[in-house]
Amino acid sequence: MTTYTNPVLDADWSDPDVVRVGDDFYLTASSFGRVPGLPLLHSRNLVDWTLVGHALERLDPEEEFARPRHDGGVWAPSIRHHDDRFWIFWGDPDHGVFQVNAPDARGPWTRPHLVKAGRGLIDPCPLWDEETGEAYLVHAWARSRSGVKNRLTGRRMPPAGPSLLDGGPVIVDAARIPGWFPLEGPKLYRHDGWFWILAPAGGVETGWQGALRSRDFFGPYEERIVLEQKDTEVNGPHQGGWVRTPSGEDWFVHFQQRGAYGRVVHLQPMRWDGPGGWPVIGDDGAPVLVHRRPALPGQPPAAPATDDDFPGGRYGRQWQWTANPRAGWATRHSGDGLRLACVRTSDAHDLRRLPHVLTQRLPGAPSVVEVDLELAAREPGARAGLAVLGDAYCWIGLRRGTDGTVRLVHRFAEPAADAERDAGHSRPAPEGRVRLRIETAPGARCRFSHDLGGGFEPSGPVFAATPWRWVGALLGLFALAPAGSAHGDEEGHAGAAVFTRFRIRPL
């Protein structure tokens, strides 16, 4: 294969940043309130990526992320390599700038360190200047927390990065740049004697990529638009990172907002317009769909894993909880299959409120999602299923009735609704087992079906998936029981459900 096609990551890897170390490339992305956070992807050719781990085991403060927080947590991280260590900085809009570091991308990573406390500090990026030995950090602002937006603040930083040395001035006030609103997501570099800030403006769906440069870190900066939609179908091409290959080729990784699919990742060629010139990204500033591959060693086709047989009850790296997990939600055992406890909850009427939903990203391409489910819980009201989660959600699965029988159910909730309702007719599931399927069509239109032993049958109308705020729609596996029962164990569990043979294949 001599060419590649965008997007190179066709799912919600939001706000990507990339770094090269030797012959290896590493990418991280926003994970917001999902756990584990700070995903780490690896590639040798910038086109084929695999998920190799996460840098953040749990979110702090623990109590604030005991419940789903889709608008909090990890925003727009930056990944760098300095002093033989990997460093990731990110902004939590409610608490400030954090960092973790590790000798290897696969860990072990340090616990999160709060570099700078404060509300509204987001999108931080460090720079260790090899020419002067100085270290700097630039960050943006979230108006929802601070009342400030459209500004970039610069700060000095000790080389080790544990804290900031000064209060930091505003080094770019985009209110003075006509049309550049909002300016955010800065990535800081040193090149050709200039300080460079690559930063998006104009909003996630309609914006562009800007470049700003100055001879001095604290400014003044001049600006230029270096990537925009033009006459292509790639809306809002921006926010990402620049990386140079060992042979000296330059490439730019960025996202495109695609509704319920979230922010998918594109790879653009990049060059410099002569010595002292500006970066030129894509095809003369327009995003490319198909392009020559980077001049890098061959690599077998690869993509982040989706399928899972859950060996020994363990789930793969692709899964994330919707909040900090607790012991006992998933039980290890000697066979295959994911054994999820039916956690008792007063929020059984609304999956969006549950911390114990195990999720992965909705594929950007039309797909078939399948999983086998057995409801082992004997308690009336216990249920488990496969869901598509967003501002609206829909799920199909099994529920134990008050008469002890198990029935197949299909339910959904609209964005403004505070409780779910039936999406299809309930029917008996005498064996307490079912194979569930979701077919996703263009536009994130989801068709649910089930197989109780006689082949697949459709269930309910087509469901149009919706994103959460900042987050694309998610596939989810869950098990629960309504609160208030006097039966079951002392940990608040009402038995369990077992999921086996999770698969995603092209439609």
TrEMBL record:
CDD domains (alphabetical): GH43_FsAxh1-like
GO molecular function: hydrolase activity
Gene3D superfamilies associated with the record: 2.60.120.200, Glycosyl hydrolase domain, family 43
Residues annotated as domain Beta-xylosidase C-terminal Concanavalin A-like: 308-484
Protein name: Glycosyl hydrolase 43 family protein
Organism of origin: Streptomyces galbus
Record keywords, A-Z: Glycosidase, Hydrolase
Protein family membership: Belongs to the glycosyl hydrolase 43 family.
